[in-house]
Design goal:
The chain is 27% helix and 25% strand. β1, α1 (8-19) and β2 (25-28) form a beta-alpha-beta unit. The protein folds into 4 domains: 2-94 and 256-324, FAD/NAD(P)-binding domain, CATH 3.50.50; 96-253, FAD/NAD(P)-binding domain (3-Layer(bba) Sandwich), CATH 3.50.50; 334-351 and 385-484, 2-Layer Sandwich (Alpha-Beta Plaits); 352-383, no CATH class. A 5-stranded parallel sheet has the order 3-2-1-4-17, with helices on one face. It has helices spanning 8-19, 36-39, 48-60, 77-83, 112-120, 138-157, 183-192, 295-298, 303-322, 359-362, 376-383, 405-409, 427-437, 461-465, and strands at residues 2-4, 25-28, 64-67, 87-89, 95-96, 109-111, 130-134, 167-172, 195-198, 200-207, 213-225, 231-244, 247-250, 254-255, 270-272, 275-276, 290-292, 326-336, 391-395, 415-419, 447-451, 471-484. By secondary structure, the chain is α/β, with parallel strands linked by helices.
């Protein structure tokens, strides 16, 4: 098995294929494995030692990870298809997208992902001291905060402070409320001194007669999304301003690079450049024996999505090569908890934020962890806030007398009794009603108990109140096994 890309998707596929008896070989273009985990997530968020330990576990299963090997340069895609039984494309979307702005091409303008890669690999980046980051997502904040640390670190190493002040500005189309970045990124970025400008869209990158960047021209963005929440920005060209800078970072999206398919991948059809046609169920491409995982399978998403698609691709490859079907068997079990009770006041405990290093301390070194972590005492207190969602009240309709007592005592108002006639009559609901009451039942004469799972705090007040013992607190557990046929 050949896997192109040692990111979360590729390594997850390799892990499962090794357990299934294969000998995966992973080809990684970078000098280190783990993909965006190692070159995209800054070290102040994710210590590199943690990544290395996880990769070592996968290597111990017999997975051969070959770093510094570029498919299309060191080995062709056609050669991989000849020498291996199947190939998984897990190259991710590591290329920064451009905006096509006037003045964008030239020195002083960097892709956000490219900047993160250079920082992670300790490669020199000619970043100035007045930096504008364009974008409003988590990657934009990773870039802005990494640049801020690099400037602070470089300044601290000089005998005399460099002339002038340093500034990192993050400019996004979205308002503060609409920014896609996580709240924690925005708050910590503000603490560290990132200048945030919301509601502005780039028009052009301005340069002097020598070609050096002098600033970015922006125009006011009046609206980012339309009434259907589709990206449809509206601008006011009469409101424009220039943000002075000597470097620009573009963090406005990512795209994959599949140039290596030119040699041996003509039968891998693409619905648009860089994005292969993929069977949603099997993750197979139009080429026999070629599968995809990660960003190529579903677009840029979260790490856990990449892991899930890698595991799914591994199952598909197993079935393709062995002609055996992998079948999932899920078993659900319920354990009744007699006299279930929670400790007094458990639901009123407030969340304890993860302790953070002071903003000044974070900037001492680019790799200094932002989160210092919970102490044992704080960790136990935070764990005690768990509502234990594996426990749930179960209602026995044969015993229920519809007294409404459960709804009356519910502290979060998550229970409601309502006539069946007032419920939206979906196909599944009609089938369930017909199974219990028959097709001719008068729905206005029968009721249902509605439960809002998001509001239930597992207090067991409903079970204690029920006069007919129709409600029990039960622990629900799931077991999933796989078998071949």
């Amino acid at each position: 098995m050949a896997i192109i890309g040692a990111g979360p998707a590729g390594l997850s596929a390799a892990h499962d294929l090794a357990l299934l008896g294969f000998k995966p070989v992973v080809f990684e273009i970078e000098s280190v494995p783990a993909g965006m985990l190692a070159i995209g997530i800054p070290a102040y968020r994710l210590p590199r030692a943690v990544i290395e330990k996880e990769v070592d576990v996968i290597r111990a299963l017999g997975v051969d990870i070959r770093c510094g090997v570029a498919v299309g340069r060191d080995i062709s895609f056609s050669q991989l298809r000849r020498e291996f039984a199947a190939v998984i494309l897990a190259v991710g979307a590591k290329s920064s997208r451009s905006l096509g702005l006037p003045g964008e091409q030239g020195p002083g303008v960097f892709g956000g992902v490219d900047l993160l890669r250079a920082v992670s690999l300790h490669q020199p980046v000619p970043v100035g001291r007045e930096v504008v980051v364009v974008g409003g997502g988590n990657v934009a904040y990773d870039v802005a905060r990494s640049v801020l640390r690099q400037i602070a670190y470089d300044t601290a190493r000089t005998a005399a402070r460099l002339a002038g002040t340093s500034r990192v500005s993050l400019v996004s189309l979205e308002s503060l409320e609409e920014m896609p970045a996580d709240t924690v990124e925005i708050v910590e970025g503000d603490e560290e001194g990132i200048e945030r400008l919301n509601g502005w869209g780039p028009v052009a990158i301005e340069r002097d007669s020598a070609g050096a960047v002098t600033g970015v021209r922006f125009r006011r963005c009046l609206r980012v999304y339309d009434e259907n929440r589709k990206f449809s920005p509206i601008y006011d060209d009469n409101q424009q301003k220039v943000v002075p800078c000597d470097s620009v970072m573009l963090a406005v999206g990512q795209a994959p690079a599949l140039g290596f398919l030119e040699d041996g991948g003509a039968d891998v059809e693409q619905f648009r450049p860089g994005w292969p046609k993929v069977d949603a169920a099997t993750l197979a491409t139009t080429a026999p024996g070629v599968y995809v995982a990660g960003d190529l399978a579903h677009g840029t998403r979260l790490l856990i999505d990449a892991v899930a698609s890698g595991k799914a691709a591994a199952r598909s490859v197993y079935q393709f090569l062995t002609q055996r079907t992998l079948t999932k068997h899920a078993v659900t079990s319920h354990l009744t908890l007699d006299r279930y009770r929670r400790e007094r006041g458990y639901e009123s405990l407030r969340r304890t934020p993860v302790p953070l290093a002071e903003p000044a301390e974070r900037l001492h070194h680019p790799d200094t962890l932002v989160e210092t972590g919970y102490t044992a005492e704080l960790a136990m207190r935070e764990a005690s806030r768990c509502l234990d969602c594996g426990v749930t009240p179960v209602f026995d309709s044969a015993r229920c007398v519809l007294c409404g007592g459960c709804a009356d005592v519910c502290p979060t108002l998550c229970l409601k009794l309502t006539p069946l006639s007032e419920l939206a009559q979906t196909e599944d609901l009609r089938a369930a009603i017909a199974e219990v009451l028959g097709d001719e039942a008068d729905l206005s004469q029968h009721s249902a108990i509605l439960k809002d799972e998001d509001r239930c705090i597992r207090c067991a007040a409903c079970a204690m109140r029920c006069p007919a013992d129709a409600i029990s607190m039960e622990r629900v557990s799931y077991t999933t096994t796989w078998s071949t046929q």
